[in-house]
Amino acid sequence: MDEIMALDLKALVTNTIYEVFDTMLSMEIKQEEGECKKIRNGRRFVGAVSFAGEVMGNINIKMNEAFSRIITRAMLRMESGESVMDEDIEDVIGELSNIVCGDLKSRFCDIGFPCELSIPSVTSGSDFKIESMNWMRYECVSFRHEEHLMDVEIYIKSAH
User: What is the pLDDT of residues 102-149, one digit of tens each?
Assistant: First the structure.
């Protein structure tokens, strides 16, 4: 477990987010300094993927509705004024969550901690709270695109 505790999870996630936003979305995104921003106000979307095996945990990607529509239009190559369906948003956020968690899974496997991923799930609404408890390690990274924020939370614990 020391190998997992030594991983720079924030750097791994940040590199994956930068790559996805650059190659798949053609958008610039920057890591925010300091504490995680904890997106809680208004309607928001949360994409989640869990992993289980020698190491267990999950990734949550949170953003407000406006930003979720922007990245969906970018991913689907839509015009800025085109209407976006919630199902499309859920697909894009689920895919983003899957990519980030898949990259982390590869890192775990590389250091001898094989694990499997769950199917992505996406929750949306304005009156909910997602809590994960009893984890050995928690990391959160916030990102900004223009005035929009996105949080990526990582939870990990040993399977033993």
Answer: 999 999 999 889 999 999 999 998 887 777 767 889 999 999 999 999
Sign of CA dihedral 26, 101, 41, 78: positive
39, amino acid identity:
I
Helix, strand, coil share of the chain (percent; to 5): 35, 30, 35
What DSSP string runs through 84-100?
Answer: --HHHHHHHHHHHHHHH
Domain span at 14: 2-158
Instruction: Identify the burial level of 80 via C-beta atoms within 10 angstroms of its C-beta, where 0-12 means exposed, 13-18 middle and 19 or more buried.
Output: exposed
pTM check: above 0.70: yes
Number of domains comprising the chain: 1
**CB atoms < 10 A from the CB of 32, how many?**
15
